[in-house]
Amino acid sequence: MSTTTQKHTVAAEPAALPGPAAAARRIRIVEVAMQYFAELGYEGTRIDDMARELGISKASVFQQFGSKRNLFMAAYQKATDSMQAYLDVPPELREEGFFATLRWWLEQTEQRARAEWIAWQVMLVGNYGTDMDLRMEISRYLTARDPWKTEAFVRWGVGRGEVRDDLDPLLISSSMDWMVERFQDVLMNEELHPLLFGRPMKPARRTQARIEQFMKMIHGAFAARKAC
Amino acid sequence: MLSSGPRPPAGRQRRKTGPQARSIAKRALILDTAMRYFAEHGFATARVEDIAAEIDISKGSVFQHFGSKEGLFFEVFKKAILSLPSYLDAPAEIRDKGFFETVRFWLSRTEHLVHRDWVPFRISILGGYGADVDLKRQIELFMADNDPYGTIAFVRWGIERGEVRDDVDIDMLVYTIDWMTERFQDAIMAGELDPGLFREPGNGKPRHIGARIEQFLMLLRGAIGARAPRPPEGKRP
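ok -> structure tokens follow
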């Protein structure tokens, strides 16, 4: 599944040593890179330090990946690979429908962000903490990769008659991704989301109450019109 | 509204008062040069030396005024953002048509604004996506404290007109409209941000921007618009 769109991976891959040893090394470099990017951000990560921890030379990292940028893209892609699709839920939950499934995922936000801290941080760094060109590349990648399979989820919702069918499902998917991404920022606290705690919402609101409010807006935006 | 008391921005010093008109002029010149420079080169690869060289001053002199590249960018960002219009700056005849018409007005002018205000627009995008982590944090705080697009006032106005829903906290509404329109404008502007969606494959031309705006407004209206005047819902004791 995760290999279907892998064509879009690191573009300029230098001819690396073939063979399982090289592949294993590559995987190991990406793993360590994820930790570094998660903890130090993009600018803050120094390839020298990483290479030292891996016991290899900086040149050897560059030989494998070509540039810090490519290395970051590899780390980012690995992070998105670990994301679960919206429809990846128990069947009994799915039967409750589109909006119930979405709500369930939102309720999992904090717990998942803790459990998959490194992957989430790498994605946050990619979304907010890199440079403009890299951000563009990431956006293109996300559109092609659709890590949460939002489009399939939306089409499923349309098929069930729950999601409106008078708008392009792609626009619905993008908008939903935007709204959910930003809302999840809100649900996370400073510890989980050190990049973005600048816009605190009213502290009195509990997570559950915020989710209720958010779901009202989501429902208003995306639910099927009863009688148009 | 969102003001949270004095908060000295890190790495920045208040301008000294005094007769240093030349220093003030120099500061302004550095800012203008840096704004154009960052707009063209981005943040990460920009070199303070090159900015200084353009106006024949030393790198040290830039640092003296702004502390660091981050400090310089932050000042540039503030200046750029404050030069952009706020929602309620729309012409009166547009405002008279209401909240969503005003949103439509700004969205449909995105391309025009991008051409007219290319430099500050580009800086606003850089600040949104392409800065480093500490800088991003300062920018978020600045946006929260200053609400530079006047979104809070705009949403309150929409609620008073009965066009915007009043059953959701105002900060959630503000957050949603700011974020969604920002992303949508990025997509219109950059194309690259959402190629499958906003670009015709092949010719790379934005397609049906007008139609996209209509669809986007339908979504936005659904999300934050007042409910149709049906029997009042959920108000039972």
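The CA atoms of residues 134 and 184 of chain B lie 26 Å apart.
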